[in-house]
Amino acid sequence: MFKVEEIFHGDFSYGTVICRACFLIYLIVLSIMDIRKKKLNLIFLLSGVIFVVAGRFCDGKESVVMAVAGASAGGIFMIISKVTGESLGYGDSILITLTGGYLGLWNLLSLLAAAFSLAAVFGAVMMIRRKFHRKTAFPFVPFLTAAYMGGVLIEFF
């Protein structure tokens, strides 16, 4: 039987695969919440701190400095939420902060570029189909989840 390291070209440990799978499940649950209720449960959202801490032990490729920088970059989105009157919700900003702490700054920026690109394409398609107008709000967490899933798949394969 193959070991996980052999399947994934020897670059990953069991801890890495488990941490990333658990974080993906966490993001999927938050996506479902965001789609159904257009609101994230604060207690469940903040439970993501567990992934930030666990990420240091089982997937600690990023330095602590990069993790703090990633979380700080997420803090900028808290300010954006405040300034824009929650055009980007506080829940999204908290999740970006937690994700930045888990992934580190550079991986967070890559994730956000992919997520915002996916959201822009989705919004444009919906506007062309006349389902949305300029002020229509839609959940952002599913785009973060899709971008994370894509990044993990690209990295593994």
Structural account:
By secondary structure, the protein is mostly helical. It has one domain. The chain is 75% helix and 0% strand. It contains eight helices and no strands. It has helices at 4-7, 14-37, 42-46, 49-58, 64-83, 90-103, 105-128, 141-156. The longest helix is centred in the N-terminal third of the chain and has 24 residues, at 14-37. The chain is globular and about 45 Å long. The protein starts with a helix and ends with a helix. The model is unreliable at 1-10 (pLDDT under 50).
What letter string, H or E per element, gives the SSE order? Answer: HHHHHHHH
* Helix-strand category: mainly alpha
Would you tell me the overall average pLDDT?
86
Number of domains: 1
Secondary structure layout:
Elements: H1 4-7, H2 14-37, H3 42-46, H4 49-58, H5 64-83, H6 90-103, H7 105-128, H8 141-156
Helix pairs in contact: 2-4, 2-8, 4-6, 5-6, 5-7, 6-7, 7-8
What labels would you give this structure?
157 residues; mainly alpha; 8 helices; 75% helix; disordered N terminus
Report a brief summary of the structure.
The chain has 157 residues and is mostly helical.
